[in-house]
Design brief:
Layout lengths: L2 E12 H5 L6 H6 L12 H4 L8 E5 L4 H6 L4 E5 L7 H7 L3 E9 L16 E3 L2 E8 L3 H10 L3 H6 L6 H16 L8 H21 L6 E8 L4 E5 L1 E2 L9 E5 L1 E4 L10 H7 L12 E4 L7 E5 L11 E2 L4 E7 L5 E7 L9 H13 L53 E4 L3 E5 L11 E7 L15 E6 L3 E7 L4 E6 L3 E6 L5 E6 L5 E7 L2 E6 L2 E8 L3 E9 L7 E6 L4 E6 L4 E5 L28 E2 L10 E6 L5 E6 L4 E5 L5 E5 L6 E7 L2 E6 L4 E5 L5 E6 L6 E8 L5 E5 L5 E2 L17 H6 L10 E7 L4 E5 L5 E5 L32 H7 L4 H16 L1
Antiparallel strand pairs: 1-4, 1-13, 2-3, 2-4, 5-6, 6-7, 7-8, 7-9, 8-15, 10-13, 10-14, 11-12, 15-16, 17-18, 18-19, 19-20, 21-22, 22-23, 23-24, 25-26, 26-27, 27-28, 29-30, 30-31, 31-32, 33-34, 34-35, 35-36, 37-38, 37-42, 38-39, 39-40, 41-44, 42-43, 44-45, 45-46
Length: about 850
């Protein structure tokens, strides 16, 4: 039994930061493996060993992209000495950088020779390969496996003394039947060849009557995509361990007393060159836009188990690269009895592969160096995007501001509009902010360079989500800095702050006066106390194998749905009556692991569920359906009572990031720069595809006319969005469903015409769309921080340049008031007149 580790990132990584220095690195596992399976067929001294000292190897791809095009073959360094005692490994690892890194420490089975030709990883063409496990009855089936190989596959492997090398040759044989070994192939082709390789081994074993256990944990990469498997045959046996983790960055933990800020400089200065002296704690950080680093390993290489997700047995992991370099992990079940690839996974991989060709760019160019106000430093190093605070959402009278938001948190109340943007480096300020602007009760005030009423400064990272408690006039905000801050809507001051945990607070939502939050593997319920602030009155923890919670949705039925990293949606029934009389003295301890793991009441089935991470959840207006959006480019509709699948909505090319429900209309947006409109009453037909944004569409919100409610929910925030002039909930009820609607099992109000939809994108722009006919009414581009200074590259306040083929309008208060007329004919008439005038 061996130990392996693979790193795939957007930016090149120092090999030592992955291979040598983490506190549970692959070097540490070479002499202190903790999860090796015991094999009763082995001698006693090998049956439960923790040593992997029969050689090691590292593999990497060239750092420069141009060089990878000219010569896509990887580089490999192997040795038969123990990894913990090889000075050349320490010297090379402290100098080499690569975006794709393989590392392997070997424990040879009896009969397997110890030589450099048998040390992993193996390289052929543009591919790296390594294996953890064993092929049962290898000596009995070796000859037939070799007889199946093509000449090209046979000549690509130097030695056939080990089962791992023969497995690689079988993989190359099936891949060579589909393509040239030096030509880059899409991820679905690599997955198909991997499945064929495993199926061939199992078929030959069955043919020869081999009943010994096979552990086939394979990892292969071409420098762009990666496929890893966790497979055991027979399936009733225990599979060898395999984990994966994803985040925005893999770095040394910022803990007090760290030895050096630049450990690579200190490594070469130590006389021994040993990695032990530079060992430290490493962590995976998280940002608001997505994962840029994926690590696959036999055992976690960091001390924090909350970063890692266990791969299910007989499952393949496919790591793909989306637009912008973001990494996506998909799961594919392995069926060794047939070569037929699951159709759903193939469709998802094809959609994501097509999405890579989508371009992304900012709406306007970066500012000149002299644009920064006096005393404000330039952009801090290490930031992925330019994040700032003012981003218009479901609001009136709010203009966007420089610089560019990479994620949006949008909401509105009866008095104010709120927008959340990224912090953590916007203009070098290093803190997240919120912007508040007053609603125009008589209409829409878009004239002049109106500034936000107040900027709420306090977060030290990007603001991920905001929720309004109108009953107590409070605004709650969550951030990647792991805190929840509470702001008073009366004087716009921060009245409370709580450190929710060790992971970013990914989502918050109000439910009957309580605040629900998700972070890591926990969901917490908070009660606001004017004296003690937020008090945790209930906590829920999911299992370690589920991964982190990415989104939550709470409904009025008292059911909370959690979208998890393991591609599952879990539902929990809550007893809210037990929370009513809890005070600060009854509050739960935040930083403790005493919260027991709770099993869900029902979950989405693995057979027809998502195969990628669940990014967003939303409910239909009548809460009969729960809709989920995943990293597999699919939107799935579930029955809210038992999470049985109702419909799968296809069309996006890339991860779906956001959902919005407006009456009988479902709106989805994603990494393919598009927005799709689905009609729930027409068998979930895609009515329109809205284009115009130049980068990921992360935020969707609805804008209602003053005094007119529109039933909607956005990104998991179930509830109603009300107009600016009415602070009380309307007593109006949706019209009764028609007979055809009842036959289809759907009951909701028709989508109102007197509302607009706002979409926020990572390109720094916000677009306003008419819900009546989905025409883009206006494009709002960033404004300078100083109104007196208007650079020539910056768009004006009221008229922003639109890309070719799109419609742009200059709107004032009266025009917007007319466009929001409740009559659909009035909307169409106004739009037609505007278009005719612009054409003239």
């Amino acid at each position: 039994m061996c130990r392996l580790m693979a790193f795939v990132g957007l930016e090149p990584m120092l090999l030592a930061d992955v291979v040598l220095w983490p506190d549970r690195s692959i070097i540490k596992q070479s002499y202190d493996a903790r999860e090796r399976l015991g094999d009763p067929a082995l001698p006693m001294h090998l049956r439960h060993g923790n040593l992997n000292g029969d050689g090691f190897g590292i593999g990497w791809f060239p750092n420069e992209a141009e060089r990878r095009v000219q010569d896509p073959s990887p580089c490999v360094f192997t040795s038969i000495t123990p990894a913990w005692n090889n000075q050349n490994l320490s010297r090379l690892s402290s100098k080499i950088m690569s975006p794709t890194i393989f590392a392997h420490v070997r424990a040879a089975y009896p009969g397997m020779p110890v030589s450099e030709n048998n040390c992993h990883p193996f390289a052929a063409g543009r591919y790296l390969w390594m294996h953890n496990g064993v092929i049962g009855g290898f000596c009995e089936i070796k000859r037939e496996l070799l007889s199946l190989l093509s000449d090209e596959a046979y000549n690509s492997v130097q030695s056939f003394h080990s089962d791992s090398a023969v497995s690689f040759a079988v993989f190359l044989h099936h891949l060579g039947c589909l393509s040239d070994l030096r030509t880059q192939q899409p991820p679905d082709v690599l997955l198909q060849a991997m499945e064929a390789c495993i199926a061939t081994i199992v078929h030959v074993q069955q043919k020869h009557g081999v009943t010994a256990t096979s552990l086939l944990n394979f990892v292969v990469s071409d420098g762009n995509a990666l496929v890893a498997t966790r497979f055991v045959a027979p399936s009733t046996e225990n599979a060898a361990s395999l984990y994966y983790a994803e985040g925005s960055q893999f770095r040394r933990s910022e803990v007090p007393g760290s030895k050096t800020d630049h450990p690579s400089c200190a490594a070469s200065s130590h006389p021994s060159g040993s990695s032990v002296f530079e060992e430290s704690s490493y962590e995976l950080t998280h940002c608001e836009r997505g994962a840029r680093v994926v690590v696959v390993a036999s055992e976690p290489i960091t001390g924090s188990s909350t970063d890692w997700v266990a791969c299910p047995p007989n499952t393949a992991l496919v790591v793909t690269t989306e637009k912008g370099g973001f990494k996506n992990v998909l799961r594919s079940p392995l069926n060794p009895l047939g070569l037929q690839q699951p159709r759903e996974v193939a469709v998802c991989l094809e959609a994501i592969s097509r999405g890579i060709t989508v371009k992304s760019r900012q709406w306007v160019g970066p500012p000149p160096s002299h644009f920064y106000p006096a005393g404000v430093p330039p952009l801090m190093s290490g930031m992925d995007t330019w994040d700032n605070v003012a981003l218009p959402g479901a609001c009136e009278g709010l203009q966007p501001h420089f610089p560019y938001p990479s994620h949006s948190a949008l909401t509105s109340s009866s008095r104010f509009s709120y927008s959340g943007g990224g912090g953590g480096g916007g203009l070098g300020l290093g803190n997240g902010r919120l912007s508040v602007a007053p609603h125009a009760h008589s209409g829409w005030d878009w004239e002049g360079q109106q500034q936000p009423l107040k900027r709420l400064v306090g977060h030290h990272g990007s603001v991920l989500c905001i929720a309004v408690d109108e009953s107590q006039q409070l605004l709650h905000s969550s951030s990647v800095d792991c805190t929840i801050k509470t702001w008073s809507l009366v004087d716009n001051k921060c009245v409370g702050s709580v450190h929710a945990g060790m992971k970013p607070v990914t989502h918050i939502q109000m439910l009957r006066g309580w605040l629900l939050s998700s972070h890591g593997r926990r969901m917490r319920v908070w009660n606001w106390d004017s004296k003690d602030g937020l008090v945790c009155v209930h906590a829920l923890r999911i299992g370690d194998s589920c991964g982190n919670i990415r989104c939550l949705l709470a409904t009025s039925k008292g059911i909370v749905y959690l979208g998890c990293q393991d591609a599952m949606v879990r539902a929990f029934k809550l007893d809210m009556s037990a929370w009513k009389h809890k005070s600060a003295a009854d509050g739960l301890e935040l930083h403790t692991d005493a919260t027991p793991v709770r099993e869900p009441d029902f979950t989405t089935p693995a057979s027809n569920g998502h195969v990628g991470v669940v990014n967003a959840l939303v409910s239909s207006s009548d809460e009969r359906f729960v809709i989920s959006a995943g990293g597999d480019a699919m939107v799935r509709v579930w029955n809210s009572n038992d999470l049985t699948l109702v419909r799968t909505l296809r069309g996006h090319r890339g991860s779906v990031l956001c959902l919005l429900s407006i009456g009988s209309i479902l709106v989805s947006s994603g990494r393919d720069n598009t927005i799709r409109v689905w009609d729930c009453e027409l068998d979930w037909l895609c009515r329109s595809t809205l284009t115009g944004h130049k980068d990921d569409v992360h935020g969707l919100s609805v804008i209602a006319r003053a005094g007119r409610p529109t039933c909607s929910s956005s990104n998991g925030a179930a509830g109603d969005v009300w107009g600016s002039g009415d602070s009380k909930k309307s007593s109006g009820t949706p019209p009764p469903p028609s007979h055809q609607q009842q036959q289809r099992g759907y009951n909701s109000s028709r989508c109102p015409y007197s509302c607009l939809m706002a979409s926020a994108s990572a390109d720094g722009s916000v677009r306003l769309w008419s819900v009546a006919n989905w025409v883009c009414l206006s494009v709002l581009a960033p404004l300078p921080l100083t109104p007196a200074y208007n650079p020539p590259w910056m768009a004006t306040t009221n008229a922003c340049a639109s890309p070719p083929g799109s419609t742009n309008f200059t709107l004032n208060s009266q025009e917007l008031s007319n466009l929001l007329s409740p009559s659909p004919h009035g909307v169409a008439s106004q739009l037609q007149q505007q278009q005719q005038q612009q054409q003239q």
